Every structure is written in structure tokens, then in C-alpha cells.
Amino acid sequence: MLGGGGITGIAWETGLLLGLQDLGIDVTTADAVIGTSAGSVVGAQITTGITLEDLFAYQVSTPKPAPLATIGPGVLAGFAWSMVRARGDLDRFGRLVGQWSVRRAAAGKTPTLEERFAAIRERLPIQEWAGDRRLIVTAVDVTSGSLRIFGDADGISLVEAVAASCAVPGVYPPVPIAGRLYIDGGARSGSNADVVSDCDRVLAFTPVDRAIGRMRTAGQLLGSIPHLAVSPDADSVAAIGKNVLDPARRAASARAGRAQAAVVAPLAREIWSS
């Protein structure tokens, strides 16, 4: 299970996965991969056959010049106001923050859909679902506020599904799919770990894993299912920095994740081999 966490979250997860592979724990062979936001990118990459070595090399390369996105005070205020008005109802929060995101996009305060799809395509060298691998991508329906999961059988393109899962409210535009609008799956949970309730054991890698209001951490959502939930350690937090959407922090985040794997490996091996 791969959680949300922006551009640096993609890098950290990639480094962590490669570090575990270096130590003999190849979790890319999991029976099911669930991706939320940043995790949907990494999930799509590893299930379509791109090697972790190649993915890591990209993360530590020099980023192309591009406008810098940020989850600034205005975006945080929009989140907070939607959370207050939702009064603990996650579906209502999804609707409120989704509608606010629609207004932001209509006012030209986000990139265009074309720009977002181009960015997602760049991150997905292979843009078709891997039919032999179970990948689940999460998003939130703007109209209902409820969680939506996308998979190969839904007839939705992989690029659309990942773009929807990564549509951070107020930062990127909601994504239209089959007549409905979708925002980031992280609007419900940083992990959406309860989607894997049918699994007998779970490894959860969560760059941002917080309990806010009715939102729950991966560990809380997984409950009694044998699992290991891993978030950035102190060195990784320092490497990620304050803006999770800053490409300049990619390389440090990827290297920190790879280094953290040495600490994670004993517990991960215990879950993975049980």
C-alpha cells in the first residue's frame, strides 16, 4: 500500500522500495498494490514493469525547470474551512473541498487539465494498466464526496485514474472521468488502507499519515490485519522539507528513503515472509 505525499513522497517511496529490494525484500511482487495520490504514481510505475533502479535514477536526476507548486496558506485555509464545515463527516468534507477545488480551477488558480495530464504522462513511461497485476487507484468523487477506486476492469485510462488520484484540491484541477469530477484520494485518507481489508498482511508506506478529524492513520485503518506502516523517519522528514511539491527535494528524499530501508527491513521481512 502506497500513500500520498506529493513529489517528495514519490521520491521517498521509490527510495524505500529500492532499499528494501537491495536487502532482498522485493515488495513490488505483491498480490495487490493500492495507490493514493503520490502512491498511485509509484504503484502504476512498478506494476507496469519499470525497474526500481530506473525509477530511482530519475528521482535523483536534475529536475526540468517548471513552475513551483505549493500547498500554501490559501490552500491550507480552504482545507481547514471545509473540514470545519464538514463537522466530522468525511463524505461531506470530500464534497466541500471538491467544490472549492472546482471554483479554484474555474478561476484559473490551478494548472490546466492539459498541463496536468502532460505531467502525469511524463511520470508514467508505460501508460497502460498491467493486466496481470492488481493495481487499485483511489480518488474522491466531487459530487458524492465518497471514495472511488479505479482498476483495469473499469475501462478508465491509467493516466486519467492517476491524474484524478493526484488532483490535490486547490492546487491541481479536478479530473473529469465518465461525466463526474474527481479529486485526490488523500481528501479521504493519506493511505485509504481500509481498501485492502481482504488482504492477509499489508505493508503500508505512507509519506503523510495523519489522523485529522475523522481521518485515520494507516495503522488505525488496518486494525487487526498483520501489517507494518512506515512513515518518514527524522532524516527523511528533513530531506523532504516543508514543500512536498518541490522537485528540488526529490533527490534528497529518494536517498533518505533508501537509507531508511535498512531500519525498516527486519520488520518488513517478518511481515513479508509470514
UniProtKB/TrEMBL annotation:
Signal peptide stretch: none
Listed name of the protein: Patatin-like phospholipase family protein
Keywords of this entry: Hydrolase, Lipid degradation, Lipid metabolism
Domain PNPLA: 1-200
Motif GXSXG, residue range(s) on this chain: 35-39
InterPro entries: Acyl_Trfase/lysoPLipase, NTE, PNPLA_dom
Active site, renumbered: S37, D184
Organism of this sequence: Nocardioides endophyticus
Motif segment (GXGXXG): 4-9
Motif (DGA/G): 184-186
Superkingdom of this protein's organism: Bacteria
